## 1
Amino acid sequence: MINPFENALRQLWGAAKVGEFPSDLIEKLSRSEKEITVTIPVRMDDGTLRFFEGYRVQHCNWRGPYKGGIRFHQNADIDEVRALALWMTMKTAVAGIAMGGGKGGVVVDPKELSVSELERLSRGFVRALWRDIGPRVDVPAPDVNTTPEIMAWMVDEYAKLSGDQTDATFTGKPIGGTRPQNRQGSEGRGAATGLGGFYVFDAVRARAGVAEGASVAIQGMGNVGGHAAKIFASHGYKVVAMSDSKGGIYNENGLDPEEVEKYKEEHHTLTGFSDAKEISNAELLELPVDVLVPAALENQITDQNVSRVSAKLILELANGPTTPEADEILHQRGAVVVPDILANAGGVIVSTFEWEQNLAGEHWEEEKVLTKLKETLVPQADLIWQRAEEKKVPLRVAAFIVALERLASVQGQAV
Ligand code: NAD
C-alpha cells in the first residue's frame, strides 16, 4: 500500500529544500494541529446498531479557518485524511484565499446504506464533531461520495446543535429546498472544481505544447470528472475516454459526455454503452492521448505504470493521483503535470465564496461567482508557471514554494 501522507511529506520537504525554507516552518507543517477520531453509532433499518469510525484532521489555520471536504469511503484512513488535509493547506495558500487546511473521512461504503441510514450517519458525524467545527473554526465541504444533500443534513444538524443561523459551517450545500436563499449553497459550486481545472488547463495549454481540440481521457465521472468531461467537450476538446469505479469506455473519435452520463444514470454502469470499447481504469491511464485527467482517487500513476503513460499533460483534478516516483519520471520525459493543489483549487475557491455569501447574508448570481473564480485562479496558474521556469523545477515544486512563501509570512509562533 502506498501511504499518501508519506507522499505528501516528500512533496513538502522536496519543495522546502529547493525554496530554502527554514526547517522549523516545515517541521510545523509536517504535523496536523489537531486530529479527531470519532465513533458514530448508527441505527440500521433492520434495527441493529452499527458503529462507524470517522476522522477530522485540522492541519493548519494560520491563514483562516480549517477548510476541506469530508470523504465517505471504505478505504478511508487517518493517513489518507492527514495527506488530504496537508494538501488543503497548500491549496488554499496557492489559491490566495483566507482559509487553512483540514479534511474529514468516514470509513463506510455508502453504496451499502439506504438513504435513511446515510442521513443518520451524516447527522451522527456532526453530533460527534460539532464542538470542533464552526464558521470561524473549521468549514467542511463535499468530497468523494458526499453530496450537496449530505451537506444539507449536516448543516441542519449543526444548526440544531449550535444555534448557528448562518449555515456557513458547511459549503457545497444545495440550492433550493427549505432554507432561506442566503443560507443555501452557491451558484456555480457544483461545476467549480471541473471548471477551475479547465481555466488552469487553458492558461498553461499553449506553453505546455498542447493544441486546442486535443484528445482527453478522464478517470472518474463523479462531481469533478463528470463536470470536467462536459466542460472539455463543450470547448471543442475530444473526450475519448471516461470511467467510473468499475471501469471505463473508449472511442478514439470522441464520446459525448452528456450521453455517457445519461446512460450511467439509467443503467448504473458504463457496460453496454454503444459505439465504445470497454476498458479498465488501468488501461485508461495508458491511452494514446494528449491530456490525461485523473479525477478519482490517489496513487493512480505510480512507478509501476508511469512508463506506459503517454499523455503530454496531466491535469490532476483528483488529490494525490501521482506518486513522487512517477512524478519524477514524468518530469524527466518532459510531460507537464499540473498539480492537484493548483488544478483542483476551483472547488475550495467557490466554497469560500459560498461561506462569504452565507456570512454576509447574500446570494450571488452565477456569472459573478464564475468571474471571480477565474480572476482568482488564472493569475495563480500564471505565477506558478513563471516560478517553475525561473527555478527550473516542476509545477508542483513551484506551487509548493508559492504556498510556503505565503504560509511563512503568517506562520504561528512557537512558544
Ligand atoms: P465523487 O464521489 O463525486 O466521484 C468519484 C468518481 O471516481 C466516481 O465516478 C467513482 O465511480 C470514481 N471512482 C471511485 N473509485 C475509483 C477507482 N478505484 N478507479 C477509478 N474511478 C473510481 O468524488 P469527486 O468529488 O468527484 O472527487 C474526485 C476527486 O477529486 C477526489 O480525489 C477528490 O478529493 C478530488 N476533489 C474533489 C473536489 C470537489 O469539489 N468535490 C475538489 C477538489 C478535489
## 2
Amino acid sequence: MGASDGFAKLPHIGEKVRRKEDYRFLTGSGQYTDDINLPNQRYAAFVRSPHAHATIKSVATERAAAMPGVVKVFTGADVAGKMGGLPCGWLITSTDGQPMKEPPHPILAQGKVRYVGDHVAMVVAETVEQARNAAEAVEVDYDVLPAVVDVRDAAQASALHDIAPDNHCYKWAIGDKAAVDAVFAKAAHVTKLDLVNNRLVPNAMEPRAAIGAYSRANDEYTLYVANQNPHVERLLMTAFVLGLPEHKVRVIAPDVGGGFGSKIYLYAEDVALTWAAKQLNCAVKWTCDRSEAFLSDAHGRDHVSHAELAMDSQGKFQALRVHTDANLGAYLSTFATAVPTILYATLLAGQYTTPQIYCEVDAWFTNTAPVDAYRGAGRPEATYLLERIVTRAAWEMNIPQDELRERNMITAFPYQTPVALQYDTGDYVGAMHKANALADVKGFDARRKASEAKGLKRGIGYSSYIEACGIAPSNIAGALGARAGLFECGEIRVHPTGSVTVFTGSHSHGQGHETTFAQVVAARLGIPVENVDVVHGDTGRVPFGMGTYGSRSISVGGAAIMKALDKIEAKAKKIAAHLMEAGDGDVEFANGEFTVKGTDKKIPFGQVALTAYVPHNYPLDKLEPGLNETAFYDPTNFTFPAGTYVAEVEVDPATGVVRLDKFTAVDDFGTIINPMIVEGQVHGGLVQGIGQALLENCVYDKDSGQLLTGSMMDYAMPRADDFPSFTLDTVCTPCTHNPLGTKGCGEAGAIGSPPAVMNAVLDALRPLGVKDLDMPASPARVWEAIQAAKP
Ligand code: MCN
C-alpha cells in the first residue's frame, strides 16, 4: 500500500484509541531506570566542578576512599589514555573551508574544568548516601580562571580550549550574500530586529539515570539508561569512546519519563558507569537529582540574532538577512553543531515566498553547560526570529499581521526554498483562515475595549510556523556533516495465532508509540489493536535503529514498519494462494481477509499465520516457513508540518503581569493516526513554548559563571494554571513521500507558540510605547520595559 489517502481511511486510523501504555503507568508498574536494581549493585556519585573555569592543580581522593562503604574513587587520571572523549555527531565546515574546532570532551576532567557541573571524579560506594558523602570529601585544588557565559563576550574572553584560542567553533553560512545585499540596496522598506532566544533547561519529569553492568562470564556489558536512542548511544560509546565491539554491549532504555531532546545524547556519566562496571566487576547505578540535572543536562537555545527583512512597497518579502551568534556551551554535545546551522537556517523561509535569504552563524564556546537540541532544536529559533520580524514589519507597514503573512504565503507545491529545503505539501492560507475564525479575531477590538475598561492592555499575536521533521535522507545529511545514518528499522513478528509483536528502533518516552504503532499495524493487517504489542528501547531485542528525536517516529519509524508489513503481506499472499489453490497474483488482502479475485474464496489472516508456523499444508518447495519480516526505511525528504497560532494576552501595566487569555492553534500534521495523542503532543509543546515566552530563563552569573537558576525555585517552570484552555484544530495535506501520509507533531507546539505569545505581548504594549522585549516576558521585564518607554 503506497497511497496515504487510502491508508487514512482504514479502521483504527484517526481513532482516539486509548493509550495501551497507560495502564502500566497509572498503576505504578512502569519500569524506569531507577526502578531497576541488579544483583551486586553499587552506587555512583559524581564530583562536579564548583567553578565555571579553573585549572585543576590536584585531586586528593585518600580521605574519600577511606570513608565507609566506598569501593573506589575514579579521577581523570584513571581514565586518561584508557578511553576517548565524547564525540560530536555532526561536523560543520566553516565558510573558510576549515573543519569546526572540535576540542576533547573528556569523561572525567583532564587538568581543567570548563563549566559549573563539569565532571571531575566518580565515587562508587555501597549506598547512594555513602557515595554522595564521599564525593564531598574528594579534595580538588583549583586555580580559578576568568569565565565567560554570554555568547557576545566569548571572542574577548580567556580561551576555554587550546584548539580555539578565540572561543570560536565555526562560522557557517547559507545563501547568496551578494544577491541578498543587492536586493536590500533597492528595497522600498527594511525592517530590522535584534533578539535573544533565551537559554532553557529541558527538565524532563524523570531525571537522567543509568546502570552500568558487566558479566565476566561472557565479557558482556549492559547499560540501562534513560535515553531516546539506545543504538546511537551504543554506537557512539563503543566506536568512539570505549573501543569495544558493539555486540559485547547491550543498551536498554526502559520506560523513560520524558526527554524532550535532552536524552538523545551520550553523556559522560553513561560511559563512566559502563566502564567502571568491568573495573569493579559489579553493577554501578547513578540517578541524577534535580539540581544535578540543572547543571549537567544539555540545555537548549541561547541564540543572539540580528535580522533584516527587505520588502517592496506592498509588503512583499524580497530578502531576509540574518546573523546569529550561537552559544554551544563548554563542549560540543552530540548534535550541538547541527542545531544552529542545518536545523535552523534552512527553516528561515518559513511559510513565505521570500526569494533570497542569507544567514550567517558564528558558534562559540562559553563556560556554560553544553547546549544541544531541546524540543524543536533550530526550528524554534528560526520560527521565533522570522515570525517576530514579520509581525514587526506588519506594524511598520501598517498592514494587519495576518494580512501581511497571507500576502507572502506559499500556495503552490512542491516549493523549493532558497535555503535548501523543498516543501512537498501544505495549506498555509487555509490554516490561517481557520485560526482566524476559531480565534474570533473579528471580536478582538471589542475584547480590547473591555480590557481597557479594566485598566488592562490586550494584544493579539500571530505565528505561522513551519518545521522540518525526520531529518533526511541519509546521503544528503551525510554530505552536510552528519556522522550517522537517519533511517529507521521495523520488524514485524507475526505469531502462529495471528497476534503480532512489532520491534521498532523508535523510542517512546511519552509519545504513545505503543498505541499509535499498534494502530498502524492493526489497521494494515485487519486485526484488533489489542493483538499488537510494540517492543522498543533495547539493542538486544530490536534491529539497529536511530531512535526518537526531530518528530520522526511515526513518519520514519512508522514507514519502516509499513515496509516490513509490505513484505509480510507479500509472503502471506503466497501462503494464502497455496491454501486457496489460486495464482499468487490473484490473491487480494483487505480487512484481515485474503480473497481470490472473481471468486468467493476467502481465508482469514489468522489461518495464514498458523499455516506459516504449522506448515503441514505448505509450499515448502517455494517458501520458507514463518512470518517474520524486517525492513529499514530511509526517507527521501523531511516532513513539513505547519500551521498558524493566534495568541491573545492581557497585560497589567501597573504590575507587568501577562495573562494568556486565549490560544488558538491550527496545525497540519498530514494524516493523523491518533487525534487524542496528537492533541496531547500539541498541548505539551504549547506549554513548553509558552513557558519559554513567559516564564523560563536559564541564567548564569556574568562574572562567576555560577548557574543562578539552578532549581525550580529560581527557574520558573510552567504550571497548569498559567494557561487557558487551548483551542485546537487541524488542516490536512498528507505528506507525499511516506506511506502513511503523516507529518511529525511532537515539537510543533514548542516551535510555533513563542513568537505568537511575544507578538501578542508587544501588541498589548505598543500603545505604551514599548517597541521591543526579549523572552521571557516576565512581570519584572514587562514592567521595566513600560517604565523605560515612558517619556
Ligand atoms: N502521531 C500521529 N499522527 C501524526 C503524527 C504523530 O498519531 N500525524 C503520533 C505518533 O504516532 C506518536 C506521537 O504522535 O505517537 C508523536 O509522533 P511524532 O511527531 O512522530 O514524534 P516522535 O514520536 O518522534 O517524538 C519526538 C518528539 C520530540 S522531537 C520531542 S522533543 C518530544 C515530543 O516528541 N519529546 C517528548 N513529544 C514528547 N512527549 C512526551 N510526553 N515526552 C517527551 O520527551
## 3
Amino acid sequence: MRWGLIGASTIAKEWMIDAIRANDGVISCVMSSDETRGKKFADDHGIPHAVTDLEALFTHDLDAVYISTTNEKHYDQLMAAVANGVHVLCEKPLALTLDAASKMAQACENAGLVMATNHHLRHAATHRAIRQIVQDGQLGDIHAARVFHAVYLPPHLQGWRINNPDTGAGVVLDITVHNADTLAFLLGEYPEKVTARTHNHGMAGASMEDAAMGIWEFPSGVMAYTHEGFTLPHAKNGLELHGSDASLYAEDVMTQQPKGTITIRRNGEDTVIPTASENLYERGVGQFVSACKGGDKPDADGWAGVRSLAVALATLTSAENDETVSVDYGKSLNQ
Ligand code: NDP
C-alpha cells in the first residue's frame, strides 16, 4: 500500500514508520506544517517527498494516510482524506468532541473507507492473552478491575501535551482513552458511569491536569479504578482483574513495548502465564492493511475511537463538575 504521513511526529518516527514498512507499506510523502522540519523528517526516514499542505499531499497517489498531528487537527485532516478516497489510520484521541469524532467515523463508513484508531494496546500479546483468559471464564465472574497507567512524560514530549489546551492537552485525553479502550477490549463492555478527580502536580500548565483517577461502573456490575499520570518517574504500570474464581495481575503491560508479565492467583497460588513478544504497532498496522484489502475491519475501528473519547470526556466533566457522570456515547455504542 502507498501511504502518506500527516504529521512529522514522534510517534511516527519512533514506531509507525517501521510498523508501516514491516507491513510492506511504501511511504510516499510526509506532510508537516513546517517546510524545514518536514524536509528533514523526510530525509531522516527515506521518504521521497515532503509537503506543507493537504492539497499537495493528495496530489500523490495514496491508498492510506496515517494521521499523527496534534489532536485538534485530526478532524479536518481525516475529512480531507475521506474527500480524497483514502483509508485512514488515525491517532487517539480522535478529536476534542464526541460530535467531531462521531462525524469522522461516520464519514469513513459512508464512504466505504477503512478507519482505524491507533489503540495499540489491543495488539499487545499480553492483552490478547488476558482477554482470552476472561473469555474462557478462568477468573469466574469479574467484580473489579484496576488500571495503573501513571507514567513520567519524557522531556521530549513535554510540549503541547502539557502547555497548549487548544490541542486537547492533558493526561485524560492522552491516556484515559487508552484505559477505556483496554478495559472494553478485555471485558467486552464500556462503563456506564464515571466518577473522577483530576489534579495538577505542576508539570502541566494552569487549567490542565497531569493526573487523574476514576471509578468506572460497567453494565455487568464490574467496578474499575483507573489512574493516569504524567509526573511519576518511579511508578510501575499494569492492570488487575479480580473475579470470583481467580485474580489476574498484569505488570508492565500498559506500555508501547512488547513486554510485561501475567500472573493468575487462585487460592493463594500464583501461576505465571507465558506470552509471546510481538510488536504492537506492527500488528495494528497489519490489521488495518488487511481491512483495506477487504479483510475484517480492524479491532479498534473509528467507532472504538469515539467510545474511548466518550469515556475521557466523561472523566473531564465529572472532575470539573464534582459529580458522577453517565457516559454519553452518542450512537457509537450501537456501531
Ligand atoms: P509530537 O509532538 O511529536 O508531534 C505532533 C506535531 O507536533 C507534529 O505533527 C509536528 O507538526 C509538531 N512537531 C513535531 N516536532 C516539532 C518540533 N520540534 N517543533 C515544533 N513542532 C513540532 O506528538 P506525538 O508524536 O507525541 O503525538 C502525536 C499524536 O499521536 C497525538 O494525537 C498523540 O495523542 C498520538 N500518540 C499516540 C500514541 C499511541 O501509542 N497510539 C503514542 C504517542 C502519541 P507538523 O506535522 O506540522 O510538523
